[in-house]
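Q: Two folds, back to back.
A: First:
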Amino acid sequence: MKILVSGASGFIGQYVLKALGAQGIETVALCRTMPAQVSPGIIWLIQDFGSAISPENILKISECDRMIHLAWTGLPNYGCVDHIMDNVLPQYHFIQQILSMGIRDITITGTCLEYGMRAGAIHADDPVDPQIPYAIAKDALHRLLRFETRKTPFRLKWVRLFYMYGAGQAASSLYTQLMEAIHNGRSEFRMSGGEQVRDFMSVEAVAEYLIDVSISESERKIFHCCSGHGTRVIDFVENLITQYHSKIKPERGYYPYPEYEPMNFYGVPTVINEN
């Protein structure tokens, strides 16, 4: 088995590559620019996802059995309309090129934000109602690719991610900001009220789940990558403060609650091989 990973130099991609290496799975890594540090034993290909795939890359990609597609532009600004303009059609045309090379098993990351303001426990078969450009773009791509399966039959596995965290995450993320504040010895950590309930999962666990989905022969179409447990943001923050033996105090209410998220929601995990 050989797996193609797009967006391989990104936050999730780096963890997916590490986990694939630990499992001894051959990997071809596709990204826009070569990272400063590369893992041994991985074939790296440079490719602009908005352009035709180069002949030399076609040769290497054609050797792969399946793909984990992580590439996306515009993050972490979820509200920018460029998510729609810069991703939907370029991503769709990129996947069409991948299909033309014979790959018929493609795992792609979606987002829990596709459900819009739906609150409480969310199931993978619940209707979507995206409210912001990032979620609208993901949903649009998903619908286009479902249409594509009618023309070119292939196994499309759409994995909706919930709230992941880990080293290397965007500087604006809650986790990264808290870790920076702790390591810099700050006395206070500015945050929202913290009463909102979210479904948190480590990026290491996310990477393992994506690989499990990719290598499975499941006929499921939509997967939830989540813990299945709702955790208040303030509890998540205080648990990390305790874990790192810090004396920092949360300054609750400094930031307003996001308008595009319900106060309380979490995912119901998908059992991969249960049809």
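A: Second:
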Amino acid sequence: MKNLSLFQEKSKKIRQGIVSSIGTLGVGHIGGSLSCADLLAVLYFGEMRVDPQNPKMEGRDRLVVSKGHAGPAVYAALAEKGYFPYSELFTLNKIGTNLPSHCDMNRTVGIDMTTGSLGQGFSCAAGIAYGSYLRKDGAFIYSLIGDGESQEGQIWEAAMFCAHKKLGNLIAFTDYNHQQIDGTVSEVCTLGDLASKWAGFGWDVYCINGHNHEEIYDTIERAKAVTEKPSMILLETIKGKGISFVEQAGTKNHNMNISQEQMQAALKELEEGLQ
């Protein structure tokens, strides 16, 4: 259900959870977690058919975050949805935690696939979507990949498979923030015309503002109506979105140290809505 005020509220809560968990630890993948917060708010609070009280529900929609280093964002969304207590966020990547830095389906309730080695999660999403298609269970399978991750050959192998199998139940997103661990995407290995690449591989393609909740929701609804091919939604995003000093860090915000003072400043900025 489209509820723009709810999406706005949940995006802020997710970003607060990201900042609090990484700030408590003192270091983490903050840039690419903040850039996908708006998408997660729309998915978990407007689109996905899931039940935190029954996380293994048959026929549920699933999300595979192939850019597994965005785990802190997913954990914040899951906590906000009620999968586990919010206080667990403060155990991020600590000894004995159920919230490792990268998504782990064997450790964290609500995680549908272990990811981290870039490219592999998307292939898993393809397999999950094909299984759902064969079962005819009516589920939608969502997957989020990174733009740096899109340099991996395995992404394009999976893309061919999904188009060949006409997996209209698979909706993928690219977090197109134009940065990766070693620099800008264009400097490391340019992706060229990414929309044309996906279209050439047989996908339905959309290019939208990845921080506009209405665009995200409406585009997902359009993609869900496409039954004969998978859909790719390219999200133009800002790495570190919502926290000015993280945005300004540029490529250094992939995995950065966050002091207690910076954490408090970031939380204040989010509360005051400076971004």
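Q: And?
A: Residues 4 and 213 are 7 Å apart (CA to CA).
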